[in-house]
Amino acid sequence: MIAAESTLPPLLLHNFERVASPTPGVTMSSWSAEPGIRAGRMWYRLEPAQRLDGGRALHLHYRFTADAASDIGWQLTLPNLDATAYDHLEFWIRGDDRAGFADALKVEFKQPLPNAPPGLLRQGSAEVSGITGDWQRIRVPLNLMNGIADWRHLRQFGIVLQPRRSPAASGAYWLDDIALIRTGQPGPSTRDPVIPPIKTAWENSIGGKAAAQPQIHARLAGWPERLLVNPAELPAADPAFLERLARDTWRGLTALSDRDHGLPLDTVRFNGSIAPDRAGLGDYTNVTNIGLYLIDMVAARELGLINTEEMQARLKRTLDTLEQLETYQGFFYNYYDTTTLERTSNFISFVDSAWLTAGLMVVRNSVAELAERCSRLIAQGDYRFFYDPVERLMMHGYYVNLPYRSEYNYGMLYSEARLGSLIAIGKGDAPEEHWFRMARSFPASFDWQSQSPKGRAVKTVNGYSFTGGYYAWKGLRYVPSWGGSLFEALMPLLVLDELHHAPASLGRNAAVHTEVQRRFALEHLGYPVWGLSPSSMPAGNRYGEYGVRILGARGYRAGVVTPHAAALALMTEPAAAVANLRQLVQRYPLYGDFGFYDAVDPKTGQVAYNYLALDQSMILIALANRLRAGVIQGYFSADPMVQRVLPLLGAEHFFD
């Protein structure tokens, strides 16, 4: 098999024997990451290669400006290239000793994103290091460039130079024979499954996954007694209605968890019936679920749903389980089996790790008896693991099996990941500079955006200079998120009262995102209810990303409404949020024995009869903050790690 694959001839992108590439449609150019801001320049020419086989090569020169912060690069424009038959990028390179050079650079491919605005490209990249003044043949596995999964429709190949990766402000390289090759040994991939051996052997011993479902059901702490609750049963007074919703939601969170290990199942799908044999049990969980579940227990105590002794017992059981789980460099894997506790993922996620840390912080500030255990778990992971000192951003995560980082960084300030950045800074694992490196807006030249930013000027806060900017809709100004969902905008408020601590920046932005969400759904879409956020899809039992497009730089499409979005809005527009929750109850068969199901299509009335641990936890914690005067926010903000960063939040004014 390998011998047959290795006979495939290389696909030569360019050999630089002449200006035109041997592959039709391939052309050369140089670029700057942020057009209009001069970071430097690149120039190139074809010259004798000075290799044993003679011929010519590309002599590529660069020079950064003195204060350069943005990348510059050189690229080949590709003709919608299909690279699926190949598994490695290959090229020859050497540094120019006389001109100087950095010993590391980045190579990347780009392709269009499906169902995205023109010009918005997905990229896969890898760092190449150890460059010397001698010719070297470099081979990069395409699987390492994990931002791309489907290697069709390639539009660009690029060499990326970054000021922080280049100690020399100017220099030059020689490049030759850039090609795609097939070795027959593609190496590990992000798509490689993690097969838990104990769970798999157990399932096989009893007849397979379907046969295991009844036994997994037997491990649950409870089960709903009815699919739907008559809306007339719910209290007429708003405070009592919210208390009832909190009680039902908490019963569901505890019921749909593993009795022995104290871990919530990620997803339970009822498929229109509470009959156990028709349900689908997602007997896995992730670390955000666990982090929020820890907070759920504190919230339940504060709401009077359990007493202190029961809360402590539940917390101890879940912490016992956490301390048994396999970790990597002190961080937890993204998914675990709730039955056998085996990891089922190769990925270590920054944002999910941060939500687990947030949960541990809430517990250590609210339950003195468990503070030491929580502090040990917090201390074991150093967030420098995720911090990219070149980009000065947090990377999405790390694939242990590659082993290599995820392609993407959390480059936008206004996402749910901002809480993780604050935790990392407060813990001392990331510099304060990182906060100001995250984008408030993108240049107008990025024409794939939902709108062109306004007020995009350089600001200085705490000695750090960065570019501001905002979007506007019907007289309302706001810093955009990526997708325009309430999850991105409001999830951090579950633990951090941004309205209080950052009234001129994040707090104001949260209020405006809520208002635009409400008005856009009611006035523009004509929905009778509002709250667009990633959630279950009623049709097909899948998960989808939904938002108000004008609120996001890319902007997700409109679609289903999810109750967790309305619950999050209890922290920004409580009266409107309660009215919206009541509308959801009155109009749709959406309220079950364990509170709201995950989503409804307002156009068809079709309901996703699913409970997702993440979304149910967001509902419960938001209710606790509303009904008990920000109690969870108070516990989190009291933490010394948060106290260190609170002045940072209050210093910035988004709309000056």
Automatic annotation (TrEMBL):
InterPro entries: DUF3131 (IPR021478), Galactose-bd-like_sf (IPR008979), Glycoamylase-like_cons_dom (IPR019282). SUPFAM superfamilies: Galactose-binding domain-like (SSF49785). Residues 245-377 form the DUF3131 domain. Signal peptide: none annotated. Residues 474-637 form the Glycoamylase-like domain. It comes from the Bacteria. This is Glycoamylase-like domain-containing protein.
